[in-house]
């Protein structure tokens, strides 16, 4: 059996079930299901439910593996959290084989509170990456990765609204992306278990490239990206997309470069926003670094403390992209 085969199967099952939960919530999305987190981003029933589903499925197979998950159960507790808690519980129990009770639900969500670090195994989960995309009915994903001794070994991304073929956006949607260190990157449709290997589009000059960036300009500077594109001679308009779906788009050759350019100097990227995407890129033949050409370091806790931004490109052009990024950032 190949390395991490059981982990791969369990992670796929967890991500597919969590994706199903998100799709159900989307169908019934009403504003009252949205609460505001401390950082102002909207959190829905779906975030909590997806985290509960993934954490529970991981727990059933790997009870000793810690999890670094985005959500915590605070707003589901007590009388004030009862309405939301009941909605989450009934949703979670539609996709789990063994139903949870109230306490198990809260405990399961809070299994995601691991502080992270450099030794041993840990999973990291973004139950819904790209909440803004989710609320708009655009791109979002469930992102799960296994980190061993500070290095990402497995990544699974469930992208319920991602077109199977980006050139046919009205066609079938729903893609799962899977990567294991040393084993390649794969895609499958939600509607099938057949997997196809994916890789970067071949490119030799950055001027022919297209690049991806966030829809939300507060997450990545659109102005700096336009300057970098101009320096590189890029003429194609940016492909704007929420969530780690950007990593998926580049990994399968829909675009060539992903730029995430810091807007706030004090912002630390979360490991769950990048771990699964990072291994997908490497296994599809690309290079991932931060804006200073440093590798992303997943061994330092819940955030990428020593990194700023993200730059992804084919190895043939990554160096040139970094040079352009440095020129624009240093000029500021
Ligand atoms: P995206 O959909 O690529 O724009 O990224 C969504 C992610 O951006 C969310 O999961 C947040 O964790 C993260 N985020 C929040 N604030 C910032 C910020 N100031 N800079 C970069 N990313 C952020
Ligand atoms: Mg996220």
Automatic annotation (TrEMBL):
Its cofactor is Mg(2+). It holds the Pfam family Inositol_P. It catalyses: adenosine 3',5'-bisphosphate + H2O = AMP + phosphate; adenosine 2',5'-bisphosphate + H2O = AMP + phosphate; 3'-phosphoadenylyl sulfate + H2O = adenosine 5'-phosphosulfate + phosphate. It comes from the Eukaryota. It is an enzyme of class 3 (hydrolase). Mg(2+) binds at residues 70, 126, 128-129, 273. Keywords: Hydrolase, Magnesium, Metal-binding. One of its GO terms (biological process) is sulfate assimilation. Belongs to the inositol monophosphatase superfamily. NCBIfam families: bisphos_HAL2. PANTHER family: 3'(2'),5'-BISPHOSPHATE NUCLEOTIDASE, PHOSPHATASE. This is 3'(2'),5'-bisphosphate nucleotidase.
